[in-house]
Amino acid sequence: MAGTRTGATTPDGVADRVDEVAQRGWDGLQPLLDQRIIDISGLTLTVGGLAAAAIAILLALGISILVRRGLDRYGRRENVNRPALYTVSRLVHYTLLALGVMFALELAGVPISRFAVFAGAIGLGLGFGLQAIFSNFISGLILLFDKSLKVGDFIELEDDVRGTVRDINIRATRITTNDNIDILVPNSEFVTGRVVNWTHRDVRRRLRVPFGVAYGVDKELVKKAALEAARNVPFTLANDGPYRPQVWLVGFGDSAVEYILAVWLTEDATRRNAAIKAAYLWELDTQLKAHCIEIPFPQRDLHLRSVFGMSGSDALELLRGGRGATGDTRPGARPDLGDAPRPPELSAAEKLELSDNDASRETSEPPVGQDPSGGPDDPAAPDTDDPPAAR
């Protein structure tokens, strides 16, 4: 007689066993999940409801991350409009997050219809502490829909901050400068302030490089040298047609004739203003020197019109206290003023008054060795009759 096997289990038996264990575990967790945390005016929040809400929010965030990664991979593989794809990615993220929050509230036991109870508290919070955050959030949505500012644009702010837009987030926009410095700018500044977008519709831009040459240099020679400099720089967009380089004479300065080299730049050069301008100045200096064109420095010329009727070198020698026109080099010799006007002669009364003033000054001075107050000589003073060696 064949023996029978004991202890063998069937697949149906395993499934029943798993269901039994799961039911026992659920029965054990049920009292904990049903425990109330908040019970106010018919609003009941339990541990299980809050756990379900947290899971719903995490699930929404996970789906949003997966969708954004998929869109990013699609943008790398296909030739699509990256700024538009970025806008779609952001909108999908905000939509999934909003749906996740609404679903989480339902799971937590907070009906959306009764959510108006918290509207007053939320409005009060926006009026005080959250006003700036709410303004930046709305401004970020405006930027995404308005398309006046896109990821990849090269912009310039009011405080001379220049850089490329990298991210448009809920609170702020990240801008990376050419020095690889990240700057976070609140979104509201882009809506209320002035922003210069260098690549909004057309990435081509014209650069103006001012320079000056000495007076007397042929204008055509200056133009030839400047155009050669523009052709030698690889960032020049075109050498012919409507975007060709141009040389403008813009003014006559104190020390130089002022010119401007106007050049249309390529797309890559548009975002590197300082480095590109330095490259054109470098090449301008090279070409001007190659064509023997003088680059002047600030200078002043002194013209002597007349000094006591003299002019030229005689007037300059007179100002220096030199020999003058007579050539007399003796000490105290006065230069010959030639026909220059002399000062008027004094009258007899004026001469007498001057002599009286000189006499009064002489009588007012005390004798040598006498105290100015009129007293006797200081006994401590040395005897002036002694020879110098005895003092």
From TrEMBL:
**What Gene3D superfamilies does this protein map onto?**
1.10.287.1260, 2.30.30.60, 3.30.70.100
What spans are recorded as compositionally biased (Basic and acidic residues)?
A: 348-364
- PROSITE patterns the UniProt entry points to: UPF0003
Q: Where in the cell is it found?
A: Cell membrane
> GO CC annotations?
plasma membrane
Family to which the UniProt record says this protein belongs:
Belongs to the MscS (TC 1.A.23) family.
Q: What is the official name of this protein in its record?
A: Mechanosensitive ion channel
Q: Which organism is it from?
A: Lysobacter spongiicola DSM 21749
